[in-house]
Fold these 3 entries.
Entry 1:
Amino acid sequence: MRASTSAGFRMGVMGSLSKGWHHFCTITHHKLLVMRHCFRVGLYWQGLIHDLSKYSLTEFRVGVQYYQGNRSPNTAERADIGYSTAWMHHKGRNKHHYEYWIDMKANRDATFEGKPIPTRYVVEMFCDRVAASKVYQGSAYKDDSSLNYFKLEQSSKGEILFHPESKQLLETMLTWLAEDGEKIAFARIKHDIVCVRYTTPSTRKF
């Protein structure tokens, strides 16, 4: 009895260590891809600090527990308990997610809405989504993968609280990638958006 219990414990520990290592490799691979993408478009500081909260205990613990390798652990946690503690921690600390920019309307209106997102974070969002598609799709990744996921996301039930100007800017960059390929799209984003510090009418902040 003791022998079988001890063996089970060792197997559980080894399994957790294995999932921990694989999760660390996955998020680090993703982070390095985003960093390279950000560097290519001229967002050096954002490339360096991208997704550091994933290494915090709150997020990393969930990532290990729900690691599957072919989808986000946050999705698995949400399917298990109905919400994701790691995602709620993450979205409140990372400005490249549109969910960070959801707030109540002004003038004593408690309705929530998506606020305009400064351009630099929409560009980082683009880099993040492209990197995520590469990590989770592997050899099946194509230049239109991130655009296709974006369209699938927009067709979901319920209202997505994403400011229309910020959403349009993201879709434009994803379309450039899908139609022109990575080399041309990244160069265009750097020269037409980042270097000129482009802003939308509502945002007015790069």
Note: The chain is about 65% helix and 5% strand.
Entry 2:
Amino acid sequence: MPQMAQTKNTKKKSNTSSKSKASSKAKAASEAKKKPVRREICAGVFGLLGLLTLICMFSSDGVIVGALNSFFKGCLGYGFWIVFIAFILVAVIQGFHRGRPVALRTVAALLLPIFIAAICDLMFGKLDFVSGDAMPAFIGDLYEGGKTMVCGGVLGGLLSYVCELAFSTYGALLILFLLLVVLLMIALNITPKKIKEWSKAREHN
């Protein structure tokens, strides 16, 4: 009788273990089926935006292309010329994430045109904020100046103005350039460790 009880217990355990394995496999299969495709959709959207902004660089005809041309130029001015690169980079980051977190890389890639616009505004900008002028009027001037490519637009112009106010022109240029390098490294997933490994590999070769 004890042996019969033991065999029954072992059968019950094996049945429960097999049931748990089957349920875990079913859960894994359902999770695989329900795998979110938000990043892939995001990659497609930014890829389309990158294509449209590339067209904007050569033409401003059409309602959509003309509106995008005016909007991105007004917001970024000089930085408009690399907006399509930032969008394509975001599309690549989102499309080939391989399950890794890429939010920081995406934000870094989208900030690149703003920082380039601010740096170019400090070096080549032709609009200055005069104390006593109304800030909304200055923002309007930046938007119009961005469309005619004489400043860094609203975003680049305001960033350069704040940095210049805080650190002087040369200090602002240095800080913005260093931050631009950091953003590039984050967006391209380049770390000091990888740079060290690449340098060692080149030395051995």
Note: The chain is about 80% helix and 0% strand.
Entry 3:
Amino acid sequence: MKRKFTLQFKLIFLYLITTILALILMDLSLSSAFKSYLTQQIRENLRKELTLLTVIIEGRFPGGISNYAVDTSAKELGKCLKARITVIYREGKVWGDSKITGNKLLTIENHLDRPEVQQALAQGYGERIRYSTTLSVSMLYLAKPLNTGEKISGVVRLALPLHEVERTISNVHKFIYLASLIALGFALLFTVIVSVRISRPIREIA
């Protein structure tokens, strides 16, 4: 009787270890692939939203952005998209920001030297991950020029805190971990059934 249970235990242990190792490798592979995929999807979605923002602001201010009236639009659109929107004059003055209220907007520093703004003005699109000195948080920034006729009147910038990006990725990781635990449970049940069937003929021969 002792030998029977020893053999069955060895078979269960062998199958279980093999299954756990396979699940760990699959989890690591899927986690890396999903993180890369989700990060790319978030970027692509933000680029589409940025293009739409550019069209909307250019339509609302056909004469160009040159006063704080654009701030109302920035706050309205920022609330809809749940992201930070900044409207910057071509010389770097911030005319609108969805996260800056009251007199703070009057004293906000010139944004012409921001890397994503410089890239947008030079190449038609800018993107950068960096720390925001205004909001004191790391952000993913995307920027695109605003055109008035054939001239660039300014830049519209869309930003999302990195913790929001990480939260989305973390939710996917939780789903993967839960699926792995469920798969492990089924694998354990399957291992027990298989080990019993394999060990039975051996016990009969013995």
Note: Strands lie at 84-89, 94-97, 126-132, 137-148, 151-161.
